[in-house]
Each structure stands twice: as C-alpha cells, then as structure tokens.
UniProtKB/TrEMBL annotation:
The keyword Lipid metabolism applies. GO terms for cellular component: cytoplasm. Residues 16-44, 447-486, 509-542 are annotated as: Disordered. It comes from Xiphophorus maculatus (Southern platyfish). This is Type II inositol 3,4-bisphosphate 4-phosphatase-like.
Length: 889
C-alpha cells in the first residue's frame, strides 16, 4: 500500500467560489458560485482534507468529482486528476475544501465516479456510481475514516466501496501511511493562511483570491503540501487614477508657469502657445478618462482581456493578478513564491498600425532633430532664479534709492545702516543669480543661433528666425552677451565697492570736520584761514553728499538691471525649453498618451510585486539592507512574438519597462490599519515619481533607520522576451527577431551590473557567489541565438529569485501563454527547491494546467475553462509549454 502511495501524486484542490462547470451527459447541475464571496484571506474558513479510496470493478481511467449537496443548492467543489487503477485494483485521490459560509457543517458531500474512455471527448464520459455523507458526521467521528458504498445512479446496485478519511498531516516516515499523520502541518498551513494572509497589509495589496491545494511526493517519499493562490489587486485601478491626477496637476502647473513669463518675443510666444496647447489637450483627455473611471464600480479590481482595447481603460493593466505558491514540507513552515502576471503593457486602443512606442519615438526624434533638453532639476533651478530676480531686484533698487535719500540728511550713522542693508541684499542677489546655469543656457542659445530658420507655431504664426534673434535673443550677438555675463558680475561688485568707498570717504571727511576747532578758537590761537584747505560748509552740504553718490548708485542699478535682463532671458529659455521638452518635443499628444498609458499599466504591476516582496521580507535584515544598498530588481518576462501586432506590443513594452527605472519607493508609517490608510500613494511628476508604501506602526518601527527616515528605494527593471507561438516561427524563418535579441542583450548587461553592485555591497549574502555561474549561463544562452530559446527565460527568472527581485510575466493578455509559463515555473521550483520527484513533475504540471488557478483565470476572461490554443498551434510551441489534452480548444 505504501509503495503504491509513494508512486502516486495526489491532487488536492481548494473550493473556488468563482464559477463551476456544468457536467455533460449526467443529470447533475453545477451552477456558478457567488462571485462576491471569494475564498482566502477575505473570508473566514476552515480547511477540510478528505481522501477517497475507491474500489470498483472497472479497468479504465476514471475521474472523481466532489460536490456539496444542500436542499436548494448543488455545487461542484472540485475534481481530481484523471486517475489510473493501481495494482491492488483501487483508485485513490484527495480533495481539499473550505468550510465557510457557503459550505456549512450540516451540508452533505457527494462523490461521483466517472469513466474516461476518451480523454479528449467529454461526450463519452459516463457515471459509474455515487455516494454521499454528512460533513458534520465526518468531523464528529472518532474514527479516522469511514466506509461507504458506491451505488449506481438509481441507488439500487452496489458497484464498489468508498473509504473517506480526514487527512491529518505530519512528517511522514516509511512506516506511516497518510491516514495516520498528525495535524502539525495542516495547522501550520492554516495559521499561515488565516493570520499572515489575512493581515491588513495583504488586504491592501490583494483581493478576490482563488486557491487550489495539491499534495505531491518528493524524491525521498515525503509529502509536500502546495497551495496555489491567484489574486486580483485593488492597485489595478487605484494607481492609474492617482497617475492621471498627477499628470493633470503637472500639466496644469506647466501652463501656469509659462503663462507667468509675461510678454515674450514672437518666437518665444509661439513656443509658449505650442506648449500650452499640448498641455491643455492632455489635461482634457485625462480628465475625461478620469471621470469615466470614477463612474465604474468602486470595487473594480480587474480588467478582462476582452476589454484591453477600450479607450477609457487605456491606463488600466489587462488581467493583472498575483500568482503565488506556498510550499509546506514536513517539519517546515511555508515558503512563498510570487509572480505578477498581466497583459503586456501596451496601448491596444491606439493599436499598432504604425508600430509601438520604440519605433514611434525614433521616427519623431529623427524628424525633429531636437537637442537634449534641460533636466527637470535645471528647469526647477531656472524657475527659482526667475523668482529670486523678481524678489531681489526691487529690494536692491529700493535700498539704493534709500541711500540717496539718507545722504540728504548728512547723518553718517544712518547712512552706514542703509549701506549695510544694501551690501547684504546685493550679496544675496549675486549668490542667487550668478549661476552657471545662466552661462550654459547662453551657450545653448548661441549654438542655436548659428543659422536662420522658420517655424510654424500652433497659433498660426510663422516666425522667420534670424541668427540674431534665434530663440528670442535680442539683435546683438548672443556670443557677446555670453562674454558680457562674466563682466556683468564684476561690474556689480565694483559698483558696490565704489559706493562703499565713497560713503567711507564722506564719513571720514565728516569726522575730520568735526575735529577741526571753531572760528573763535582759530582767531584766539592766531591761526590763519590759509591753513584751512577747504570750506567747512562744503563738507557739511547734504546736496554735495547726494551729488557724489548719485552716479555710483545709477551705475549699480544699471549693472543689476543688465544682470537681471540677461538672467531672465536665459532662464526663460530654460523654462520654455523644459516645457517644450515635456510636451511638444515628446511627440504628438497621441504618442505622449500612449507612453503614459503603457507606464501606468506597468506601474500597477510593479507596485503590487514590490509590496508583496516587502511584506514577505520585513523580518529579513539582509533583504532590507539590499533595498537600501542597490534597490529592487524587477524582471519582466515577455512571451510576445516579433511578428505582426505583437511586435508593436513589444516595442511598447520595451519603452514602458525602461520608463519604470525612474520610479522609486519610500516606506512610510500608516496612520492606522484601515484599508485606505494602507494603500500606496503616488507623488512627484513624470520622470520622478515616488510610490509611498505605508506600513502599520509595529512593522514600521522595526525597519532600519534609513528607511524610516524616507530613504528612497530605486527600481532596476529588466526585460527578457522569447516568443514561443506560431507567429514567432514565422518571424524566425521569414521575418526579423533583432528587437528581441537587442532587448535580451541589453537587459543581460543591466542585470550583470545590478548583481555586481549587490556583490560589492553585500558580499556575504546567501547564494551570492552562485550568481556568477547563472549569469555566465545566461550570457551563453543569449549569444547562442537559438530559436525559441526559453532557457533564457528560465535563467533570468532564477537570477531574479536569487536576488529577491520582483518577477513579472506577460503575454498578449496574460491568459494562455502566461498560464503555461507560470505553471511550468511553479513545477520547476518544486523540483529544484523542494525535491519534487522526477516521476511526479509531468503529472504535477498537467494537474496545475488542467485544474489549477489559471483555468479560473481563463474562465473569468472569456467564460470558458479551456485555453485558447489549437492542436496545430501547439505543434510550434516548446514541449514544456503545451497544455494537457482536454484543457484547450
């Protein structure tokens, strides 16, 4: 008996409250369960493990179906894999169901046995027999198992026996059979599911779970309990809504900034008009999209693949789910593995007639020949300089006027006070405006003034731009203005020094005058007037003081005015160039919208993956130190072909993944553990977005001080793509796969840089040395340029898991090819990390594809549990990516 059990991997599936299939050629109806009552962390449940041992006099393959039977409801819970007869003539299978609000203890459970004469045809399925039992009786029974009779459908004839057991799992030894296991392992699983998975943090990231449970045998004949969980996420809609709001704010502020520049030359005014028009178009479009999203149900967490081309869902990721697997072995707690699955980030609404983002951006760049724009920091510096000039120039002018007024009073002390204020404000003025950015801007203006040109602006104005007034420069040579810029600050300083020297001279003369004896004293001492070099009244004349200061003050004002004029022109150029670079220079509004939409889809996916990684690593100091030192790796796996529309999707995805490199995370302390307070928040602007992830106070206090202080966690995204379908066969034989080769090669280089930095920062990190071998293998696999070389994907995923990265997998809609990829990855992890026996590998792979969570994903997308493959298509697929017979059509 034990040897037979070791040779057979029992499939255990957990009740899915999403939907159920109608059985053909039997009279049992199985209506879909209530969608609003998902299993998993959002519902209170108990796990009931039941093992059925069936003895019937048949020699064919059979399938066991388990249903609950209530007075007004018959629901199919699960069905096992197709079971072969063992040597002792019995059929064995296990099921796992949850006792929740839909499955009460007073319910009955029905077991039906079907013959599978032809696995490809459901029409030949016939019911061999059935039996039923009370769940309450099973739970109350002191015996570990009970025996029931299997009867024909009319209830008259007995055709076999069914032994029902409650599985009590513990570490199995050679002399123990599954029926005698203790509840240690089951309790560990139950605690993991009910406590950690039901935490407020997890509810903020995941919702609407679908779960399946399996029991597989290892090479040393021990048992693995595998929990497969697929979940939606509220981030599918919440983050795109935040992104739309941020983009609307950004473009609204930009319109206000360029409008505040005041009167401009015709050319610059035309540029301003173009930037404003571009921004207003985006604002109007995004406001409309935002309003349509707000009209949707607040509980919306899912965009079906059939809706991927809807305009108002352009920013929403397609079919975004977390695919998680928990593996619990004898005597060990559960280990989680996660993959985020979603449709390749692409703009299906605009479609791909003219290619994807990469091609469109190259065409636009070649057409415009635009130079590199000023950075966001430089644009911000320019705005600060303009604000400083507007504030400090009036202060300097006002103090200069006050100095002249005080000079009329001939009061040295009062004059000194005003002079000190003037020196202080002028010094602040020099510090604020004497910026190298002004010189850089003047050089750029000069380089653009080399030749005449004309430009038709959006307002219909055709500007003929001569070398003297290119970019709105005045008629004098811009090169001269650049050279005069350095002299301007020398003149400002010298003018102020001259005023200071004159005031000191006047003060000195006034003191000298006060030290001279009075006329009476001079006459009594016999001194003559010839000894007096100047008239005392000449020094005490207030008009003389003002007359001597006036030309110096005028010179200072002229120098300050010249500096402000030059700086304002240069900084206006920077601000306008930044506005143009952020609007018109990025392409027509259609290209900008496409880029924002693709980024939005990737944003939701990567934030979901990061949150799951963070929640799972809060108690791992090494992982937290890794976040501080080198950031988080995000490895995108693509299964797109380089042929037809999917080539455009890959071009979209390449740019979208690259744009995510500008993203950063910050960890904050949540105000409470309410769901709204634990939702991530998007801050910043395009090219500099930060996602703030709140944690409950207890978890936040355990973080390193740098993370608690707001230290940013950078993202390093990489993309590896291998097309696997029939279209990729056409591309490799008759088309071009150079895009795929380039993307993989560049990502491999970035991945190596990330791993090298990690080795430098954390040389003692577990498994860090084995990265070298994996990276070398990845290099060789990419350089080999084999057709449909899926080994590239396997190696990249292995590296990602080694460095605690976020795994993301995509195909066109994350429904079919993605299902083949994630189920293969799960089974490879079981084999490599948990010693799943080689004999069980294929069986486990077929089980997950036939009855696992991904079949439910297909159901919720297109209303059927069959993958959208044909037999002819599958002939072109790599063998490990082909589903079992009967699971596609």
């Amino acid at each position: 008996m034990n040897s037979l059990r070791r040779g057979f991997a029992n499939l255990q599936t957990l009740m899915d409250s999403r939907a159920s299939r109608s059985e053909q050629n039997n009279n049992l109806e199985t209506p879909a369960a209530d969608r609003g009552a998902p299993t998993g962390p959002n519902s209170s449940q108990q796990l009931l493990h039941v093992e059925c041992q069936v003895a019937v006099a048949v020699t064919t393959k059979v399938k066991i179906h388990v249903s609950t039977v209530d007075p007004y409801d018959v629901r199919k819970l699960c069905s096992t894999q197709i079971v072969k007869r063992s040597e002792d003539g019995e059929y064995r299978a296990s099921v796992c169901c949850s006792i929740d609000s839909k499955l009460q203890r007073h319910s009955r459970m029905e077991v039906r046995l079907y013959r599978e004469d032809d696995l490809r045809s459901h029409s030949s399925r016939s019911c061999l027999g059935f039996t039923s039992f009370s769940i309450r009786d099973l739970l109350r029974s002191k015996e570990p198992c009970c025996s029931l009779k299997l009867r024909t459908m009319d209830g008259v004839n007995e055709v076999g026996d069914v032994t029902v057991s409650r599985l009590q799992l513990e570490e199995e030894t050679e002399d123990k059979c599954p029926e005698n296991k203790s509840a240690v392992l089951c309790d560990a699983l139950h605690g993991s599911v009910q406590d950690k998975e039901n935490s407020p943090m997890m509810r903020a990231a995941l919702c609407s779970q679908v779960c399946k449970l399996y029991r597989f045998q290892t090479e040393d004949h021990r048992w693995l309990l595998v929990r497969e969980q697929m979940s939606e996420t509220p981030l599918s809609f919440s983050l795109p809504k935040q992104l739309l709001s941020a983009l609307i704010r950004e473009h609204t502020d930009r319109v206000a900034e360029v409008k505040a520049l005041g009167d401009l030359s015709p050319h610059w005014d035309g540029l301003r008009h173009d930037a404003v028009t571009h921004s207003l178009q985006l604002i109007g479009c995004y406001q409309q999209t935002q309003a349509e999203l707000h009209c949707l149900s607040t509980a919306s967490c899912f965009k079906a693949s059939s809706s991927k081309s809807d305009r108002h869902l352009q920013f929403i990721p397609t079919n975004l789910h977390s695919q998680r697997m928990e593996v619990t072995g004898p005597g060990s707690s559960g280990v989680w593995y996660e993959v985020i699955t979603f449709g390749a980030p692409a703009d299906h609404h605009q479609a791909f007639k003219h290619g994807g983002l990469k091609r469109l951006l190259i065409k636009h760049t070649d057409h415009t020949h635009s130079s590199a724009p000023f950075s966001r920091d430089e644009s911000c510096r320019a705005k600060r300089l303009l604000a400083a000039a507007a504030q400090l120039q009036p202060l300097v002018f006002g103090l200069a006027e006050q100095l002249l007024s005080v000079s009329m009073e001939a009061d040295p002390n009062r004059l000194q006070d005003v002079l000190d204020d003037l020196r202080e404000q002028t010094s602040l003025f020099i510090q604020a405006l004497n910026d190298d950015l002004v010189k850089v801007a003047l050089q750029d203006m000069n380089s653009r003034a080399g030749s005449g040109s004309s430009h038709l602006h959006g307002n219909g104005l055709l500007c003929e731009v001569s070398p003297g007034d290119q970019e709105g420069a005045p008629q004098d040579d811009t090169q001269n203005r650049e050279e005069e810029w350095d002299r301007t600050w020398v003149n400002v300083g010298k003018s102020l020094d001259c005023i200071t020297a004159m005031v000191e001279r006047l003060q000195e003369r006034q003191r000298h005058l006060q030290e001279q004896p009075s006329p009476e004293q001079q006459e009594s001492s016999g001194e003559t007037k010839s000894q007096h070099t100047a008239s005392p009244s000449s020094f005490s004349s207030s008009s003389s003081w003002q007359e001597q200061l006036l030309p110096l003050v005028v010179t200072l004002r002229d120098c300050v005015r010249e500096a402000v004029t030059t700086a304002r022109a240069a900084m206006t150029f920077v601000v306008l160039q930044g506005a143009v670079a952020a609007t018109v220079a990025r392409g027509p509004t259609q290209i900008v919208q496409r880029r924002h939409a693709v980024f939005s889809q990737g944003l939701s996916a990567i934030v979901c993956g990061f949150m799951l990684k963070l929640f799972g690593g809060l108690e791992d100091p090494e992982f937290l130190q890794q976040l501080l030192s080198v950031g988080i790796l995000a490895q995108f796996e693509g299964l797109l072909s380089t042929y037809g529309e999917e080539l455009g999707m890959l071009e979209d995805m390449e740019v979208g993944v690259a744009d995510l490199s500008s993203l950063a995370f910050a960890i904050t302390e949540a105000q409470s553990e309410r769901p709204d307070d634990l939702q991530p928040t998007l801050t910043g602007a395009w090219g500099d977005f930060v996602v703030e992830v709140p944690l409950p106070s207890e978890s936040f206090r355990s973080l390193p001080e740098e993370l608690k202080a707001g230290r940013l966690i950078r993202v390093e995204p990489v993309l590896f793509n291998i097309g696997i379908n029939q279209h990729q066969s056409l591309a490799e034989r008759f088309g071009d796969s150079s895009l795929q080769e380039r993307v993989n090669q560049q990502s491999c280089e970035r991945l190596r840089v990330y791993c090298n930095k990690l080795r430098e920062k954390l040389p003692n990190m577990a498994g860090i040395q084995s990265l070298l071998d994996l990276l070398s293998s990845l290099d060789r696999s990419i350089e080999a340029k084999k057709r449909k070389n899926v080994e590239v994907l396997w190696l990249a995923a292995s590296v990602c898991r080694k460095v605690n990265g976020v795994r993301l997998t995509s195909c066109k809609s994350a429904k079919d090819r993605t299902a083949m990829s994630v189920t293969l990855e799960q089974c490879m992890i079981l084999r490599e990390q948990h010693t799943l026996s080689q004999q069980q590998f294929s069986s486990a792979l077929d089980n997950m594809r036939r009855d696992g969570c991904r079949t439910e994903n297909v159901q919720k997308n297109i209303g059927t549990r069959k993958f959208a493959f044909s037999s002819v298509q599958l002939l072109t697929f790599p063998k490990l990516y082909r589903p079992p017979d009967g699971s596609y059509g």
